[in-house]
Design brief:
Order of helices and strands: EHEHEHEHHEHHEHHHE
Number of strands: 7
Largest sheet: 7 strands, parallel
Pfam families: adh_short_C2 (PF13561)
InterPro entries: NAD(P)-bd_dom_sf, Sc_DH/Rdtase_CS, SDR_fam
Mean pLDDT: 95
GO molecular function: oxidoreductase activity
Shape: globular
Number of helices: 10
Low-confidence stretches: none
Keywords: Oxidoreductase
CATH architecture of the largest domain: 3-Layer(aba) Sandwich
Protein name: SDR family oxidoreductase
Strand content: 5-15%
Number of domains: 2
Length: 255
């Protein structure tokens, strides 16, 4: 029960890493507000997890939604101890190939969403004496990959913002860290496999990105989020915990 009596918000929790984190947080004793643009999906997850999970349809790129999310957590549970900024997605393309509107939309979720959620959560945490924020960055924040310019830029921004917030709010007893996953199986890859002419070749290409020749399951990243959110990580702030099967240790990532 590493999160006993804690209250958490997890964004992007209708599937993937966010759903896995919500399940672990509830199991570890937290009361959790699950937020996602997919209202039906996140409601189904909350129902499955039981009375200590509550759902809210929210877009992290919209200030009004974020304010309502923070207010809802406090109204339902009385406080806010943990914010897991997990909402995000990727698109293919170099800077030449990436449409400007697609770039703006991705940045609004992946980077602005972290900014907005933290902006409105931090005053609540500070008023109650502290809290912790865990952002989902990526190993591409520091190494880059081919054909994902917007995604790499957004996650690099998340990593840098994590360090800035950790410094700005250390005196308020607020820890801010990020987890940096490698390739992690998600509904995003389910969709790509469904439309790929050679699904097995696609999967093998993903596996080849890691020296241990496999991708992560969402629970493996969620376990890292749990540690950063718990009191076991009480001396960690401004840190990036890389969980990528050794991918970032290579001299260069395969295409």
């Amino acid at each position: 029960m590493r999160l006993k009596d804690k209250v958490a918000i997890i964004t992007g929790s209708a599937a993937g890493i966010g759903e896995a984190a919500a399940e672990i947080f509830v199991r570890e004793g937290a009361r959790v507000l699950l937020a996602d643009r997919n209202g039906e999906g996140v409601a189904a997850v909350a129902e499955r997890l039981g009375p200590n999970a509550s759902a809210l349809a929210a877009d992290v790129s919209a200030s009004a939604d974020v304010k309502r999310m923070i207010e809802t957590a406090v109204e339902r549970f009385g406080r806010l101890d943990i914010l897991a900024n997990n909402a995000g997605y990727g698109i293919p393309g170099s800077v030449v190939d990436t449409d400007e509107d697609a770039w703006d939309a991705l940045m609004a979720v992946n980077l602005k969403g972290v900014f907005l959620c933290s902006k409105y959560a931090i005053p609540v945490m500070a008023a109650q004496g502290g809290g912790t924020i865990v952002n989902t960055a990526s190993n591409v924040a520091t190494m880059g990959i081919f054909d994902r310019a917007a995604y790499c830029a957004s996650k690099g921004g998340v990593a840098a913002l994590t360090k800035a917030m950790a410094l700005d709010h250390a005196d308020q007893n607020i820890r801010v860290n990020c987890v940096a996953p490698g390739v992690t199986w998600s509904t995003y890859f389910d969709k790509m496999v469904a439309t790929h002419p050679d699904p097995d070749a696609f999967k093998n290409k993903l596996k080849a990105r890691s020296p241990i020749h496999r991708w992560a399951e969402p629970v493996e990243i969620a376990n890292a989020i749990l540690w950063l959110a718990s009191d076991e990580a009480s001396f960690a702030t401004g840190s990036m915990l890389t969980v990528d099967g050794g991918m970032s240790s290579w001299c260069g990532a395969p295409r």
